[in-house]
Every structure is written in C-alpha cells, then in structure tokens.
Specification:
There is one protein chain. The chain contains seven helices and no strands. With 158 residues, the chain is an all-alpha fold. It has one domain.
Length: 158
C-alpha cells in the first residue's frame, strides 16, 4: 500500500499548456478581463433569447383583428424589428462572427433608453463588448479555450 487515497480524483498536469499560446502568454489580469467578457457576452445571449418573444408578439399583432389601426401596426413593426435584432444578437453571441459584435453593441445602445434595467444591461453589455474584441471574427479566441486556460492558470497562479 502506497499510502495515497485510492478514491481521490486524478491530479491534473498543469505543465501541459492546452489551448492557444496567446492565452498562456497573456498576463493573468488581462486574461481575467477576457474571461469575464466572454461569460458576459454569453449571458447577454440568453437575455437576447428572451427578447425574441417580441418577434412572435409582433407577428401575432399584425395578424390579429386589431391590426387595423396605424398605431397597432406601428407597434407591431417595432416589435418585429426588436425581436429580429434580438434573435440575431442571440445567434451571434454564441457563433461570434465579426459583425456579431456590432449587432451586440447596437442592441446595448438601444437598451440604454429602457430606464432603469435596460440601461444597466446596456452598460454591462457595452463594457463586455469593448473588452471582448478578440472573441469575435475569423481568428477569434473560443469561449471554451478562454475558460479552460483561465481556470488552469488561476489554479496554478501564473
């Protein structure tokens, strides 16, 4: 018997640096900001998914018998636009195309008008999109890689 706990979880080898080298060479404080931005953008994606309800509500308003007035049609068109933009923001917060960052910034700017909660979410999102520039585009850093490297480096304190 070696004296070690046979039921203990296996120990990770922190000497192997899995993930992009750029993340390993980045200082930990900067990596933490990128990690926070990536998680924030994902959280915003879930909020955008809730906003897609406007897409369906606007469609139903246009097809209802009350859509005869110009006011109702105008509200329905605005709801369709905002719901479509939310759907686009939801998809791009996970796929992270280059233009998706600008869609997210646009949604956050539009949210600034919705006092008080929309303003907070808009400011939160603008900070996340400003810090997360490397998370978008064809040569983006993947969320999975950022999370894995951050957790490994935090555990090793490097």
């Amino acid at each position: 018997m070696t004296g070690e706990n046979a039921y203990a979880p296996p120990r990770a080898n922190l000497e192997t640096q899995a993930g992009p080298q750029e993340l390993w060479s980045m200082e930990l404080k900067k990596l933490r900001r990128l990690y926070d931005a990536s998680r924030s953008i994902r959280a915003l994606g879930f909020l955008y998914a809730l906003g897609t309800v406007g897409l369906f509500a606007g469609y139903e308003m246009l097809n209802s018998r009350y859509a005869r007035s110009a006011d109702t049609r105008g509200i329905a068109v605005v709801m369709l636009f905002v719901g479509g933009l939310s759907l686009l923001g939801f998809v791009t917060s996970f796929t992270r195309q280059r233009w998706g960052r600008w869609v997210g910034v646009l949604i956050c700017l539009l949210n600034l008008v919705n006092i008080p909660f929309g303003t907070l979410i808009g400011l939160f999102g603008l900070v996340a999109y400003a810090r997360g520039g490397r998370l978008f585009g064809p040569d983006r850093l993947l969320h999975k890689d950022v999370v894995d490297v951050y957790k490994q480096r935090k555990a090793a304190k490097t």
